[in-house]
């Protein structure tokens, strides 16, 4: 049942939980030592404990809500780039001018990378799906601050078109451990994004090196970020910037791994696959982690309606979409230990198969990614 969507700013306030990370980083910079653990304690553990206390939110907002009523929800994603840039480059300035041990530096920028990945990339994901040029630029800036600009091309041109098929490297196969998956996507996705963009340009009669290729923008923005880190903190600043970027990407790909693990679209023959449906993404209705990650865990609806803004995303019952037992932070922690992950998730994947595809008897081609590539895939 859908509910009317309130327009009062106070109703958007829970989605501003991300700002709580700012004082955590400031305290860690001031005190050093193990204080960097404030960031993961806030982003991972506190929100997960509150999930347990406050439970699930199964209410669905009215999808016909006009965009004018979403101003305060959208605002947090719009202001986040300057906030994150202030944290990253302010920390580089502070650390390179004060006496921090190598362990303290790595710890601090590990914590900042968690903020860049858990918050910054999630917000970039929301922004890159919008038609507003300012929002798209802000999304590109956030991705450039993690040196992962190609993600927009890969996500919009490949992942959303070919999710849960062999073409999509981001869909983790059944039984595939996270660390194998992580190495695979780091190598494959930049090349995949380049192929998708060059094919898009070719359809318009343009060459790969045409100025309209967004890889020029991705590269320029990333070089600008590195140059700023160099100007502020020298080569030490560059290395610290790259370290937080790697941590942020690790966070992104942990989330990607969790979102579609083991789920596949049915192959209909001759490279044809069924349309994307809510059943092809793991859904989670955990209240507080959805506040922090702006409803990213309502991922089934995001893939079903990719242009729907985050406050309006719907949740689904078990008969429509598979359900995660816990929110993303806890599931991502499990994913880093493949035997524990498989013990918890493989039975759920098998139950999903029995529920939605009882007619499929041989799952080996799906498990191994051996089904034909989808027709028309770049």
From TrEMBL:
TM annotation in the entry: 12-29, 35-54, 75-95, 107-124, 215-232
Signal peptide: none
Predominant cellular place of this UniProt entry's protein: membrane
Keywords: Cell inner membrane, Cell membrane, Iron, Membrane, Metal-binding, Monooxygenase, Oxidoreductase, Transmembrane, Transmembrane helix
A single BP term in Gene Ontology: lipid metabolic process
Cellular compartments annotated: Cell inner membrane
GO MF annotation, one: monooxygenase activity
The Fatty acid desaturase domain, residue ranges: 113-332
Residue ranges the record marks as coiled coil: none
Cellular compartments per GO CC: plasma membrane
Highest taxon of source: Bacteria
UniProt cross-references to InterPro entries, sorted A to Z: AlkB/XylM (IPR033885), FA_desaturase_dom (IPR005804)
Keyword Transmembrane: yes
Membrane topology: Multi-pass membrane protein
Pfam families: FA_desaturase
Annotated family: Belongs to the fatty acid desaturase type 1 family. AlkB subfamily.
Protein name per its UniProtKB record: Alkane 1-monooxygenase
Organism this protein belongs to: Paracoccus halophilus
Upper taxonomic lineage: Bacteria, Pseudomonadati, Pseudomonadota, Alphaproteobacteria, Rhodobacterales
């Amino acid at each position: 049942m859908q509910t009317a969507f309130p327009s009062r700013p106070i109703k958007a306030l829970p989605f501003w939980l991300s700002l709580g990370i700012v004082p955590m980083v400031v305290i860690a910079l001031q005190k050093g030592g193990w204080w960097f653990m404030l960031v993961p304690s806030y982003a991972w553990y506190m929100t997960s404990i509150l999930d347990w206390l406050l439970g699930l939110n199964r209410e669905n907002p009215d999808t016909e809500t006009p965009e004018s009523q979403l101003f305060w929800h959208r605002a947090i994603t719009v202001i986040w780039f300057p906030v994150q840039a202030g944290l990253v480059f302010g920390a580089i300035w502070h650390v390179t001018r004060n006496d921090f041990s190598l362990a303290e530096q790595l710890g601090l920028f590990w914590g900042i990378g968690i903020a860049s990945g858990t918050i910054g990339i999630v917000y970039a994901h929301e922004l890159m799906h919008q038609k507003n040029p300012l929002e798209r630029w802000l999304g590109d800036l956030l991705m450039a601050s993690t040196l992962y600009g190609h993600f927009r091309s890969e996500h919009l041109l490949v992942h959303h078109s070919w999710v849960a098929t062999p073409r999509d490297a981001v869909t983790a196969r059944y039984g595939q451990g996270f660390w194998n998956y992580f190495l695979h996507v780091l190598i494959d996705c930049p090349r995949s994004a380049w192929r998708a963009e060059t094919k898009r340009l070719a359809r318009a009669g343009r060459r790969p090196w045409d100025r309209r290729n967004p890889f020029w923008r991705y590269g320029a923005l990333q070089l600008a970020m590195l140059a700023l880190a160099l100007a502020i903190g020298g080569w030490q600043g560059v290395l610290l910037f790259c370290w937080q970027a790697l941590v942020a990407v690790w966070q992104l790909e942990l989330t990607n791994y969790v979102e579609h693990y083991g789920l596949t679209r049915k192959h209909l023959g001759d490279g044809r696959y069924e349309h994307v449906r809510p059943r092809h993404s793991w859904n989670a209705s955990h209240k507080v982690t959805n506040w922090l990650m702006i409803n990213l865990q309502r991922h089934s609806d995001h893939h079903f309606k990719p242009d729907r803004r985050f406050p309006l995303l719907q949740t689904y019952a078990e008969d429509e979409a598979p359900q995660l037992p816990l929110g993303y932070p806890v599931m991502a922690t499990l994913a880093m230990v493949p035997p524990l992950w498989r013990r918890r998730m493989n039975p759920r994947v098998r139950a999903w198969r029995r529920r939605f595809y009882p007619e499929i008897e041989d799952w080996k081609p799906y498990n191994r990614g051996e089904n034909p590539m989808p027709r028309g895939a770049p």
